[in-house]
Amino acid sequence: QVQLVESGGGLVQAGGSLRLSCAATGRTSNVYAVGWFRQAPGKEREVVGTKKRSIGVTYYADSVKGRFTISEDSGKNTMFLQMNSLELEDTAVYYCAASTRLRDFRAIINYDVWGQGTQVTVSS
């Protein structure tokens, strides 16, 4: 089973940038899709962006489209989330996740391996 660990969270002012990292260990050959998700206090976890590994198709939520970018370093089994033009509404715990299921890569329900999360706080 693959295991994931996020890092790179912190405090940043609105308009600033931050890059999150997700390191994978263990079995990764059966990973169908990867993604970044976030959860603010009192709210449901939501999709930030997901990527289907077989063909490299990437999906972003409308709220982050044009500001956030997902990338991968396959050799190091690492995924990144580059966040630019951060807004107060981006404050949340950010999670990376992987899916071993051959289902819709955009749907959060299909992600079965999760990291521990990293806090991102955007201040005014």
Architecture overview:
- The chain is built from no helices and eleven strands.
- The chain starts with a strand and ends with a strand.
- The radius of gyration is 14 Å and the shape is globular.
- The strands form two sheets. Strands 2, 4, 5, 6, 9, 10 and 11 form a seven-stranded mixed β-sheet that branches. It has a four-stranded antiparallel β-sheet with strand order 1-3-8-7, with no helix packed on it.
- It is an all-beta fold.
- The chain has strands spanning 2-7, 10-13, 18-26, 33-39, 46-52, 57-60, 68-73, 78-83, 92-99, 113-114, 118-123.
- Helices cover 0% and strands 52% of the residues.
Strand segment tally: 11
Counting DSSP H or I runs of 4 or more residues, the number of helices is 0
Secondary-structure-derived class = mainly beta
| Helix-strand string | EEEEEEEEEEE
Overall 3D form: globular
In short:
The protein has 124 residues and is an all-beta fold. It contains no helices and eleven strands.
Keywords for this entry:
single chain; 124 residues; seven-stranded mixed sheet; four-stranded antiparallel sheet; 0% helix
